[in-house]
């Protein structure tokens, strides 16, 4: 049989709007059904389905299983000559059969993750206008703001969208301003949400805010698809953002909004402005911060360092560095019962000019200002040299987000080890060539005492006859679960307490807590189970804070996790039930989701 034998997961929760047990209603037949990527099963349509949905003569005779389709698709994937060609192949598959697309990635996750996301997705984004075949997602134009309301209205009723990922394309995956190509990072993030946390693909919306581009190559390229103008001035840009947010809240009031790859000058300002009013998230700031904090939390369990006494040195005070500092500050405040401003005093931040000082004044960004130290405390201590700062601060934790390869020298690492028995060292800069230190060197220089997490995958390290896993601080083990929890409980806001709860749940899954030779964060291959635990923590905390807008959420741990799993979309073929168009939902009519809405308009 082409359809999996059981459509029942957690039948006691089968009444929920997002339930995934039982058959799906479908109003499409014939070629219209085969063209819809959400319902299309290709050669896996059963004999009964071929009869009911008028597919005879449109498909080869042999009915195959999803597993057989995956085997064939993987061979086709492997035949592509390079990673960009493989990325393009996967994009084409997603437009044809979403279940097969996600199942193929799921079965080969470690191999395919770098192809569907970073670094290969960055290459696809850079070549967006030249590789363009057909649009997917919502394109909003800063010079056509009067249309934003109508543009967002066409993506369904108020209850149809659970999650919006939006980018302005200014700072994409470390490759800079990519303009309208930013739509692909919004799409890629939504793929990860579905893959890693079961967010329903028909209930998401990728958006790009086209405010122009300062990429000179694009401005001179006649094939560039975005606005061929420099980025708009600040006041006009701010109006654009506000118009988008207001329209999104009007037409999709339940949607959780994920900001992605905004420029350094705008990312923090936007997040700070809207966080008190809507449920929103910035992965570059909060996602990086949460996964790093989770690794740190696991490390502190091992080193037994109290939060109240913790000293953290962040080397690299840009968006990622200050985002990490913020999450650590909030965790210290929650764990110790102190004010956030007091907790910030336990964190020292260094940028390319040296330690952040109050005398830096206007050079400091709003995110950096709260970490600036008093100048008089550093009058007699060098504050531009990392080694001198390490000796002065005596940090328990050293975090690198500087993109300065080799910045954590042997002298710096040995200096840190002289002050604390088990240093926690996280060289997080991406890609691998920009790491502040190699894990093998850190182990050697600390005599195997260091607890390490990195920003890119590294092979295990051999030391004194033992093999140690190197944890990767991959945001994808964190942000999907946070989003899942926010979506399922319809939280009004994403408060710091919810993020701390999510981080605790992620830290509790650290393999190193059970075996010190393993990683400080779970591997991405375990992410769906991790997402359940993270989502449960977010939902429970939202309930405690009075932020949840959903009633009847189970209180028991097992029941809550079953409730969550029932609402997580899976890459499996479910049975189809034919319904008439007059009573069909948008999903049943094949009009939901970014691809479905596009097909409905064609």
Automatic annotation (TrEMBL):
Q: Which InterPro entries match?
A: Aminoacid_DH-like_N_sf (IPR046346), Malic_N_dom (IPR012301), Malic_N_dom_sf (IPR037062), Malic_NAD-bd (IPR012302), Malic_OxRdtase (IPR001891), NAD(P)-bd_dom_sf (IPR036291)
Q: Which GO terms describe its molecular function?
A: malate dehydrogenase (decarboxylating) (NAD+) activity; metal ion binding; NAD binding
Q: Which residues bind (S)-malate?
A: 430, 474
- Where does the Malic enzyme NAD-binding domain lie? 285-543
Specify one Pfam family: Malic_M
GO CC term (a single one): cytosol
Q: Which residues form the active site?
A: 117, 189
Q: What domain of life?
A: Eukaryota
Q: Which family does it belong to?
A: Belongs to the malic enzymes family.
| Database matches in NCBIfam families | PRK13529.1
By what name is this protein known?
Malic enzyme
Organism encoding this protein: Pseudovirgaria hyperparasitica
């Amino acid at each position: 049989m082409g359809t999996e034998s059981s459509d029942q997961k957690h039948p006691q929760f089968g009444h929920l709007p997002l339930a995934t047990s039982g058959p799906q209603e479908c109003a499409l037949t014939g070629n219209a059904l085969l063209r819809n990527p959400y319902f299309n099963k290709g050669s896996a349509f059963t004999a009964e389905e071929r009869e009911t949905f008028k597919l005879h003569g449109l498909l080869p005779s042999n009915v195959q299983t999803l597993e057989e389709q995956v085997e064939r698709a993987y061979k086709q994937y492997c035949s592509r000559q390079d990673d960009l060609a493989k990325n393009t192949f996967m994009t084409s598959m997603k437009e044809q059969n979403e279940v097969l697309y996600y199942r193929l990635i799921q079965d080969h996750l470690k191999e395919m993750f770098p192809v569907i996301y970073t670094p290969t997705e960055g290459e696809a984004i850079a070549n967006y206008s030249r590789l363009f075949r057909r649009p997917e997602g919502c394109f909003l134009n800063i010079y056509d703001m009067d249309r934003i309301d109508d543009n967002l209205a066409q993506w369904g009723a108020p209850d149809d969208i659970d999650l919006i990922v939006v980018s302005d394309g200014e700072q994409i995956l470390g490759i800079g301003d990519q303009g309208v190509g930013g739509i692909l990072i919004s799409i890629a993030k939504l793929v990860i949400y579905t893959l890693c946390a079961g967010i329903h693909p028909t209930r998401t919306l990728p958006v790009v805010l086209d405010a122009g581009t300062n990429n000179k190559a694009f401005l001179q390229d006649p094939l560039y698809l975005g606005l061929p103008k420099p980025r708009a001035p600040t006041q006009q840009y701010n109006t654009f953002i506000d118009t988008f947010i207001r329209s999104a809240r009007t037409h999709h009031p339940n949607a959780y909004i994920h900001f992605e790859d905004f420029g350094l000058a705008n990312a923090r300002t936007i997040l700070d402005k809207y966080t008190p009013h809507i449920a929103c998230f910035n992965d570059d700031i909060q996602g990086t911060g949460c996964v790093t904090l989770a690794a740190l939390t696991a490390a502190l369990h091992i080193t037994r360092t109290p939060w109240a006494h913790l000293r953290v040195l962040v080397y690299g005070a840009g968006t990622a560095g200050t985002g990490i500092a913020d999450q650590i500050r909030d965790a210290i405040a929650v764990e110790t019962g102190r004010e956030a401003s007091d907790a910030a005093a336990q964190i020292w931040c260094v940028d390319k000019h040296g330690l952040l000082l109050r005398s830096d004044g206007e050079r400091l960004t709003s995110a950096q200002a709260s970490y600036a130290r008093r100048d008089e405390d550093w009058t007699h201590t060098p504050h531009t040299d990392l080694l001198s700062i390490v000796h002065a601060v005596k940090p328990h934790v050293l975090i690198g987000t500087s993109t300065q390869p080799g910045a954590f020298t042997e002298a710096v690492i040995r200096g840190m080890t002289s002050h604390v028995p088990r240093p926690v060292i996280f060289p997080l800069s991406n890609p691998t060539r920009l790491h502040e230190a190699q894990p093998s060197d850190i182990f050697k220089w600390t005599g195997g005492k260091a607890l390490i997490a990195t920003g890119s995958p590294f092979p295990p390290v051999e030391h004194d006859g033992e093999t140690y896993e190197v944890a990767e601080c991959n945001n994808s083990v964190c942000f999907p679960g946070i989003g899942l929890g926010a979506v399922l409980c319809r939280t009004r806001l994403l408060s710091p307490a919810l993020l701390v709860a999510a981080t605790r749940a992620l830290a509790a899954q650290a393999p190193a807590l059970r075996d010190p030779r393993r990683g400080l964060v779970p591997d991405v291959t375990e992410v769906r189970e991790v997402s359940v635990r993270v989502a449960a923590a977010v939902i429970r905390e939202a309930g405690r804070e009075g932020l949840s807008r959903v009633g009847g959420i189970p209180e028991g741990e097992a029941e809550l996790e079953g409730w969550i799993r029932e609402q997580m979309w899976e890459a499996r073929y479910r049975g189809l039930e034919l319904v008439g168009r007059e009573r069909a939902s948008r999903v049943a009519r094949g009009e939901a989701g970014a691809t479905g809405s596009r097909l409905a308009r064609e």
